[in-house]
Known about the structure:
Blueprint: E1 7-9, E2 12-13, H1 22-26, E3 29-37, E4 40-41, H2 44-57, H3 64-75, E5 83-91, E6 108-115, E7 127-136, H4 151-163, E8 167-172, E9 177-180, E10 184-189, E11 192-196, H5 206-218, E12 223-226, H6 230-235, E13 238-243, E14 247-254, E15 257-258, H7 263-275
Parallel strand pairs: 7-8, 7-14, 11-12
Antiparallel strand pairs: 1-2, 1-6, 3-4, 3-5, 5-6, 8-9, 10-11, 10-13, 13-14, 14-15
Helix pairs in contact: 5-7
Amino acid sequence: MRSPATIWVDGKLAAALPLPDRGLDFGDGVFETVLLWHGKPQFLTYHLARLETGLQKLSFPECRATAAEHLHMAASAFTDTPWAVMRLAVTRGSGPRGYAAPDQAVPRTIISAAPLQQDRKQAPSPIALAYAGITWASQPALAGIKHLNRLEQVLAANEARAAQVDDVVVLDGGGHVCSLSSANLFLVEEGRLVTPAITTTGIAGTRRRLVIEQLAPALGLTVVEETVAVSRLEQAAELFCCNSIRGLQPVARLGDTAWSEFPIALALHQQYCDTMTC
């Protein structure tokens, strides 16, 4: 029977985080949010690849293998749970005061997990969006990775709640479309898929990569990564978003623009379900 504890630190069940920790002090680390089905991590190869990219960009000592080992250990506690969500964070661990990383850093893994009530293979409910007031800051050195600094996302999520919508479309400093607060965005234009390029800001989502590399090609769809102007959103035949927990969700409303049919998004969702290791 699974222990009621849902937090592991360095592979051991824990109730508290050892301090000091540079992840808490400075956001010095990366994380992955992994979907589990009866303890099986979904699309783990993509998660571990992005984790490795983040660790390299932040100049962490080699620790991917240890992180993966701890993740599998924690996931095995959920074999009796149909669906669960797991958050794996890797911080630079403890260190002296100051921003500079210690010469001999010892990375720390922090894992939390909880059951999900909804069957992630169910047809997704279309969502309503608004435009965010906040914009994503430009920082090419961090673009693509899922680092622990998420205050921009907190502010964007607060805007979505205040606007009483499911999420918000966030632009970059130049006024171009980036993503939602916690998901990547795709447009359907003339039978092809378009998604904002990730060069100076944003997260390279695992489900975004899955759509580009597997799901769209399986349906004969071309995917283009490019700069996207706001005007193109409201002219698109469809919009849909994706992340590791939502899967693929069609957009029913963005501001004053509404969509009622989502054939491409739903076809991709079915392909997504068929690709899961369930």
